[in-house]
Recover the amino acids of this structure.
């Protein structure tokens, strides 16, 4: 009987894990920089928390898998909470320059923490992040009650604050002095909607394009690609990708932003596009990104059906719609203790039969999920070698969302051509 009760406790947990994006832990910095291969060119990412923030919450932490890392290093050097001004003043840019060598690339994405103010407002910024709005050489001197201990103004009690354009031009010039290639990246999209459309510019787009023209440096427009993707999902589903505020995404949203950057690099015909993977381990397998909806039934089985104390079993029955038109049947094993949804785990296999973008066949999805003190983590992947028919060689991962009681999926997959 205890097994059956545990199963009932895990039932809402299992459905929640299937239906919602992973919870977003507090916004923090967790630098874990792998050694760089000195024989390869390196792509440095210079930005803020939208690119690097906690465990897998910045798009930069999802970027390396999109590249052939036998040919290029991906070095995410973004830092949460920084602006073009504070990234420079704190010595973070000096650290990047110390790693940089001829032939490297730098993606520069700044704006979320720069504010949009004049000198008077900058002088009142107690976080010392705001740059002066604009591209000119305007400056203002502000006192530093606590001088920096590292960086170019270490030990100084007064800081000369420059415009946004001055700091970006400094990054460009320093990169070129290292015989590396600077690339400007439009700022990530915020979850702000008006008249059915998501915001596409928070005030820096014109600056980025003016700097691009004046400095003859390429600008890669990931913002437009990301905005198009969010609008295709709609406001309710997009909101699930921004669980704490309108700026910071969940891990799923970060992964979508990473794909948007990759697409924008291709659209811009950037030399970095040559390093992007067109194959994620299968010959001729082009990476694809599709979405759709599904209906699901999860039916608990008898107490002894799983054959183990404290383990319950459920049957899964789904109908997929959209790019994936299919039905699936599977089984789930679950275990949990305490109040419903507090802690537990489940694993599941479901056999999918139908068509994927018109290609007919079958494949198997594997679920692995945990709930730790109310914080869920879920992985849904295609079982290697499980594809049949026109889906032979299928590989990929699926993220699942819920809005207003309706389930939807985001499926990133590869399929040999």
């Amino acid at each position: 009987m205890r097994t059956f009760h545990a199963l009932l406790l895990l039932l809402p947990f299992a459905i929640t894990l299937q239906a919602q994006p992973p919870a977003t832990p507090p916004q923090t910095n967790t630098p874990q920089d792998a050694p760089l291969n000195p024989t390869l060119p390196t792509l440095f990412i210079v930005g803020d928390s939208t690119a690097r923030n906690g465990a897998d919450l910045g798009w930069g932490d999802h970027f390396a898998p999109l590249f052939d890392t036998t040919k290029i290093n991906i070095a995410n050097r973004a830092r949460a909470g920084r602006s073009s001004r504070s990234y420079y003043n704190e010595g973070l840019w000096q650290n990047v320059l110390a790693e940089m060598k001829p032939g490297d690339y730098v993606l520069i994405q700044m704006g979320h923490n720069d504010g949009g103010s004049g000198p008077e407002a900058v002088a009142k910024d107690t976080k010392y992040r705001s740059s002066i709005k604009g591209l000119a050489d305007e400056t203002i001197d502000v006192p530093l009650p606590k001088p920096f201990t590292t960086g170019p103004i270490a030990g100084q009690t007064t800081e000369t604050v420059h415009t946004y354009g001055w700091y970006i031009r400094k990054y460009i010039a320093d990169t070129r002095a290292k015989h590396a290639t600077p690339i400007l990246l439009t700022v990530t999209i915020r979850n702000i909607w008006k008249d059915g459309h998501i915001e596409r510019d928070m005030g820096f787009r014109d600056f980025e394009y003016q700097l691009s023209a004046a400095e003859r440096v390429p600008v890669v427009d990931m913002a437009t690609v990301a905005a198009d993707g969010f609008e295709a999902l709609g406001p309710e589903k997009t909101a699930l990708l921004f669980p704490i505020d309108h700026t910071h995404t969940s891990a799923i949203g970060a992964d979508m932003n990473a794909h948007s950057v990759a697409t924008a690099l291709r659209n811009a015909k950037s030399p970095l596009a040559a390093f992007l993977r067109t194959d994620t381990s299968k010959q001729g397998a082009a990476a694809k990104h599709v979405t759709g909806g599904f209906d699901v039934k999860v039916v608990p089985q008898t107490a002894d059906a799983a054959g183990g104390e404290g383990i319950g079993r459920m049957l899964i029955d789904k109908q997929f719609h959209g790019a994936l038109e299919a039905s699936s049947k599977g089984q789930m094993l679950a275990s949990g203790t305490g109040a419903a949804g507090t802690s537990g785990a489940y694993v599941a296999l479901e056999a999918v039969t139908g068509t994927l973008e018109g290609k007919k066949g079958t494949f198997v999805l594997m679920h692995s999920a945990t709930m730790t003190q109310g914080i869920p983590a879920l992985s849904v992947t295609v079982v290697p070698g499980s594809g049949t028919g026109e889906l032979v060689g299928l590989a990929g991962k699926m993220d699942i969302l819920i809005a207003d009681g309706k389930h939807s999926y985001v499926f990133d997959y590869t399929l040999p051509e």
Q: What stands out?
A: The longest helix spans residues 2-19. The longest strand covers residues 285-300. The radius of gyration is 24 Å. The chain has two domains: 2-18+284-416, 42-249.
